[in-house]
Design goal:
InterPro entries: N-acetyl_sugar_amidoTrfase. This is LPS biosynthesis protein PseA. It comes from Desulfomarina profundi. The protein is mainly alpha-helical. The chain folds into two domains: about 210 residues, 3-Layer(aba) Sandwich (Rossmann fold); about 100 residues, no CATH class. About 40% of the residues lie in helices and about 10% in strands. Strands 1-2-3 form a three-stranded parallel sheet, sandwiched between helices. The longest helix is centred in the middle third of the chain and has 18 residues.
Length: about 400
Amino acid sequence: MKKQKVLYGLPEEVKFCSRCVISNQRPSSVVEFKNDPKAEKPTIMFDDEGVCSACRYAEIKENIDWDQREKQLIELCDKHRKSDGQYDCIVPGSGGKDSAFTAHILRYKYGMNPLTVTWAPHKYTQIGWDNFQNWIHSGLDNMLYTPNGRVHRLLTRLAFEVLVHPFQPFIIGQRLIGPRFSVLYDIPLVFYGENQAEYGNNIEENEKPTMDMSFFHESRLEVMDLVLGGVKVRDLIEKHGIELRDLTPYLPLDGERLKKTGTEVHYLGYYLRWDPQECYYYAAENTGFQANTERTEGSYSKYSSIDDKIDPLHYYTTLIKFGIGRATYDAAQEIRNGKITREEGVALVKRYDTEFPVKFFKEIIDYMGISEEKFWDVIDSARSPHLWLKDNDGTWQLRHQVE
């Protein structure tokens, strides 16, 4: 049988976890400033029994002494807690279930005074804006940071055209905003929710409570060689009319300033057992978080990543590049957390994973400034031949599906 061409450095043989529904094509969730769109590497590992690293970590979580971990959290909070009314920690987030849980429980159970900071979505959904407002009105201070609209639209379009990853500039900004505000306001302690290693990155990353700070300030490249949206900063300036000052929100921070502030980025999920569904229940009860009235396109869920109109398109691009759509991500973690069975997960993936996100499609391609024809040219050129087959009638089909 003729071998099919493989893009993005993916494994040639497609395998599915024997416990959940994720495949070995799952890409890295690490955002770098030197991204090669043809050389993305998967990070999820499968053992000899065909079980993925995320499922193995779910086993490890069963044996963690969570009471001891909570004591460590209390000690950390005691170390940083202010008694003069000043903010003592930063919590980045949108007011979705995870950040709503993180900020609220830190303030109202552990006595912290968090400043919540939000990197604005590309285009708010109504439910996203309502939940954001409810989050603030539940008793939290917030600063909404909205980047230069012209620049962000350009970077989003380039990221789609070059990387088929329209979410990349948003992810960079969102990842940097916590440490950035830490330096600006001299607040050393930053809390994010869960470590992405929960979902398949290197298991060893879960063994420490803090994020690697090198992402925020170090680079082997000069600033002009940093890559944003798949394009070097030099080319953004010379070919796209961008000034260096326009890119400030996306650039690594000054390492000396971070060191002087003593910035530490901690995962709350290291200290408290992380369960997305339980975060939802807590947020609904304590911050007024509301699930959507309809399921999200490409999945069956109603309460995860619902604040940005570009979200469905982002997950559609992961389906195109890696054969992994939104239903796969949702079902995989719900299986690991014991909310559904693998059989139920397989059925949900087969039903919803390849669904095209119609609802906000026209609005988002208008936002990026591309035509529908251009959109499909980019999408179809991004399909790795080892994952996709084109039928005689011109219809694209996945070669491999979870069973």
